[in-house]
């Protein structure tokens, strides 16, 4: 494993066993290096892992540390086919949510994590949003559980633009660089 810089090491088996592959940047197709991923080590930086190649499928956002099995990063299975570095994992943080597509309807501005969207937002759906500063993760359920969606600086006119099939957002977390 790299001793400095930003790197991630994928292992085919649990507990950092089996064939491994060290990655230091974005990769659109990991299948040529590993068949499956049951554990990994992150040596610096925040990463988004994708279930399919070309940055598609379920997303898993992970930071520095060791993950001895895929459930440790909330993985649904051992399938990781692409990954990329999250570029803006530091503050300040500002996010504006909208209850209608194309930035319509009522809005709510956030600068902190939200453990339960329903506590501050009358609707459980977020139809569009603007990431004004920082990088954020939308979770399908409250308490930072369920499917994850990375949102980096920019405008998202519809929930499909951040990769969601539904507009349901249960909780929201900032990505903090350690």
UniProtKB/TrEMBL annotation:
Keywords: Eye lens protein, Repeat
Highest taxon above the source species: Eukaryota
Gene3D superfamilies from the UniProt entry: Crystallins
SMART domains: XTALbg
Keyword Repeat: yes
The keyword Repeat is annotated on this UniProt entry: yes
InterPro entries registered for this protein in UniProt: Beta/Gamma-Crystallin, Beta/gamma_crystallin, G_crystallin-like
Gene Ontology BP annotations: lens development in camera-type eye; visual perception
Domain Beta/gamma crystallin 'Greek key' stretches: 6-44, 45-87, 93-133, 134-176
GO molecular function: structural constituent of eye lens
PANTHER family the UniProt entry points to: BETA/GAMMA CRYSTALLIN, CRYSTALLIN, GAMMA MX,-LIKE 2-RELATED
Family in the record: Belongs to the beta/gamma-crystallin family.
Function: Crystallins are the dominant structural components of the vertebrate eye lens.
Protein name: Crystallin, gamma S4
Protein source organism: Parambassis ranga (Indian glassy fish)
Gene: crygs4
């Amino acid at each position: 494993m790299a001793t400095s810089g930003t790197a991630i090491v994928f292992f085919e088996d649990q507990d950092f066993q089996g064939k491994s592959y060290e990655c230091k940047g974005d990769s659109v197709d990991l299948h040529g290096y590993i068949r499956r991923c049951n554990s990994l080590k992150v040596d610096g930086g925040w990463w988004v892992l994708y279930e399919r190649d070309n940055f598609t499928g379920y997303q898993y956002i992970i930071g520095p540390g060791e993950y001895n099995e895929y459930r440790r990063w909330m993985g649904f299975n051992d399938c990781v086919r692409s990954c990329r570095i999250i570029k803006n994992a530091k503050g300040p943080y500002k996010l504006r949510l909208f209850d209608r597509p194309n930035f319509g309807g009522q809005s709510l501005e956030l600068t902190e994590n939200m453990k339960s969207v329903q506590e501050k937002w009358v609707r459980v759906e977020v139809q569009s949003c603007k990431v004004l500063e920082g990088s954020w993760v939308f979770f399908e359920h409250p308490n930072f559980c369920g499917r994850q969606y990375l949102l980096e600086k920019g405008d998202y006119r519809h929930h499909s633009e951040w990769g969601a099939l539904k507009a349901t957002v249960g909780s929201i977390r900032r990505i903090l660089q350690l």
